[in-house]
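Might I ask for a little of your time on a matter of protein folding? Here, with my thanks, is the record as I have it:
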Amino acid sequence: MKRVLFICVHNSGRSQMAEAFLKHLAQGSVEADSAGTIPSERVNPVVAQVMSERGIDVSLNSPRLLTQEMVDRADRVITMGCSIEEACPALFIPSEDWGLEDPEGKPLAEVRRIRDQIEEKVRFLIADL
């Protein structure tokens, strides 16, 4: 079974949404995980809200610190877009970058737009795997 690792700096928004969408849409045919280089204390509440609109609960997820073991286990590593260059995971790990905006501090409509972009990219990823 293929394993995909989604990485962003804080693991509180984009990578959490991507992991949740992959788990939901792939229905067990692909393993998904996510982590961050500087994890937040909690998932962004606006992200949790917009994901609940899709019937996916990420509110109880805990942001995780990226480890080399996670990278080594992954068949595919995807970074979500770097807003903090000094902590950008794409600088340290061979990966593909989806170049998505960080939802932190964005209004609800913008977070929904980012969520929809992630869902579309995950659907293409599943088809590609």
Summary: The first strand starts at residue 3 and ends at 8. The CA atoms of residues 6 and 34 lie 5 Å apart.
